Amino acid sequence: MYQIASGMSYLHNNNIVHGDLKSLNILLSTPLDAVITDFGMSRTKYTSASAIRVKPGQSVGGSLDYMAPEMLDDEEPAGSSRRTDVYAFGVLLYEVLNDCKPIWVTASGEPMRVRTVEAQICKGSRPKRVDGVPDNIWALIERCWHQRPLERPRFPDILRELEPYRNYQPPAPTPVFVPVSVSVSESTPAPAPEPAPVPEPAPVPPLDRTPSRPPLVFPQAPTPTLPFANISTVKYTMSPPPQIPMALPYPAAVPIDDFMDTWDSNGALGPKEKRRFTVGLGPPPNWPPAPQPADEIIAYLEKHENVPRVTLNRVRKFEAEACVQAAIGISNGRPSDDPVWELAAKLLQISADQENVEAFFYLGWLHLTGVGVPRKDVDAFAYWQEVHRKQSHDPVIKPIATFMLGWCHILGRGTQLNRTKGLELIRESKTADFGLGEECLHCSNPNVSSSSAAAERLFSVCEFGSDQEWLCKHLMAVCLVNGFGVPKDQGRAMSIFEQLAYKGHDVSQHWLGQCLNHGWGIQQQDARALEWYRAATEKGNLYSQVMVGQCYEHGWGVHQDENQAVECYRRAADRSNALGEYHLGRLYYTGEGLGQNHTRAAEWLLRSAERGNPDAQNSLGFCYEKGHGVREDMDAALQWYRRAADQGHSGAQNQLGRCYEFGLGTRADSGAAVGWYTKAAEQGNSAAQWNLAQCFEFGSGVVQDVQAAVRWYYKAANQGLNEATNKLIDLDSN
Fold it and tell me: Helix, strand, coil: what percent of the chain each, to 5?
């Protein structure tokens, strides 16, 4: 099995996909060298596997037992690819370890019917584990035949797993070219035929590679058909290479009996021309050069003004970064219905096949929106998951991909619906440069404006896909209402939320309620806001459930009813909503609508704070500072204040400033105090504005400046702080 993996690794490194790997196509030579044969389904891979797709009702070739689930998809059947070869290898490894018994059998041991096997593969079922198989090998098998193609390992990874078994030597050699197994089919397996003597291969002429392809033609309108699937006949011939000794400390040479397909002008399988060569350490003599991107692609790039010559030359060599640069260059500024996106997607796929993170990122957006590729949520999710999983510290791509993974979980797009997991990922995505976080779902004070590269990139990709995908349009409106990556335009945001709300999207209904409740981009209308909150609540939106409680608590558009408010908060809190937990803890603390109970208050605030709610973190810090419901602990208070302050909570920033000014739980540092007061004051916190004015008036932590003090007193007074008003009167009289 190590030799087979070595041979497949070599093929893939030379961009050749076997397409029909199975036990019947593996022979054993006298020294027990594995011989991979019958390349009846092989092809050169210079585009994505999706470039050659199987239409419904058309045979996909190969053998059903070894076919990956994506090849059996009724709506978007995939062609053979590197990842389908890995799937087949996993089945082959299982079959060998199971003594070549039928792969798919019923509980009574009878072979399954063809339709049953297909159904089992498509729903993710696999044969049961074989007794005695080591855990690491069984884990390898499960990774190889994983339902999701991107979860499968590459052959170099497989080789590393099989390295401990590489030098295994059985007691005696087998006869020449005895098949590894017989075929596994719906009927009883037939006995293997007697092997015929194998003559020495006759010398063949040098390589004759004379491709002739049709000119590049772009369709007039977007179409799922990829423009470079029609490939004319390419024939390969070569001389037999010398064998490589097994004693070399490298992967063993694997003789290959290869049948190279040719393709007619419609992309269908044509006549086959047989050739023999050896796969192993390095290419043998007269090996043809690695396949290049289609001549039509190169011809188009040669004429494009945004693709430098140096990039073009690197694309010819399959360099991943160059393919991404070329894709961006030809598609930049082009509308989403421009056929050039199909070409850009091909270039990105070439790069993604080499594990390029940036290509994964962009392909996720293309599959989400259906631009240049078929719309497929599962592929979008898988590509973003690859970005999230990689050890990448890219401050732009990594947080956005994590953010979008969260949305996929929340909406059940491309993966199972899991709102808790989605919230965790969205909170995880929050960074100093990408500060949106959970405020993309609910925000009472849109103050996450940002012009960082990450914020601008999110807005640009959402705006690009807004005509095809409602989620892109919704997130674009979230950016507009906050000024995240774009100048704030709450009127435009409100119009988008309204459009999507009438289409039944609960997240948009909630945001429309917020706009109406707070007067963002429209006149404040509490009654209408409550209607949209209720509509979203009926669809399971817990943030709207909390806002209905707020309406009852404060009498916004409805008769004030504290009991109804408590009930709304409790329903949300019981479903682990951090906002509901915070408000329930707040009411336990104040005793409004509930009997005052600081211990219960601290319990609910702690639950919310641990989920990342900054209001709860600030309130819990105050509980620890005062010993309300918990043991007094200034270290814990400072910890919670800081966690909230780091999320931009102005109240916590003011509290930290006070702790530093007066040395509460930490060394007094008037300079640090001024820094925290300033952050909070600039967000409009009136208490922080008062404290900062005091620092300027008396020169605490800053050079004394009465005029600066007066400015901050005025700002605090304009927000209704009576102490600031009285202070201004005193200063004026003096």
Answer: 50, 5, 45
Three-state DSSP at 468 gives coil
pLDDT at 271: 37
Residue carrying the six token digits 């069984």: 138
Rg (C-alpha) for the chain, rounded Å, is 33
Taking CA atoms, 560 is separated from 43, 398, 551, 554, in Å, by 71, 45, 8, 6
**DSSP tag of 111:** B
- Quote the distance between the C-alpha of residue 548 and its chain's center: 33
Inter-residue contact 431 to 395 (CB < 8 Å): yes
Helices and strands: H and E segment counts in the chain: 29, 7
Could you tell me the pLDDT band of residue 27, with boundaries at 50, 70 and 90? confident
Encode pLDDT of 103-125 as tens digits. 888 877 788 888 888 888 888 88
Domain boundaries of the chain, sorted by first residue: 2-279, 651-734
> CA separation (Å) from 250 to 35, 93, 247, 280?
17, 21, 8, 8
Report the distance separating Cα 84 and Cα 48, nearest Å: 12
For 651-734, CATH number? 1.25.40.10
Class of the domain covering 2-279? mainly alpha
Residue 332 CB neighbour total at 10 angstroms: 9
Quick one: which of 379, 318, 327, 307 has its CA closest to 350?
Answer: 318
Q: How confident is the model at residue 42 (pLDDT cuts 50, 70, 90)?
A: low
Q: How far apart are CA 389 and CA 385, in angstroms?
A: 6
Per-residue model confidence as pLDDT tens digits over 525-539: 999 999 999 999 999
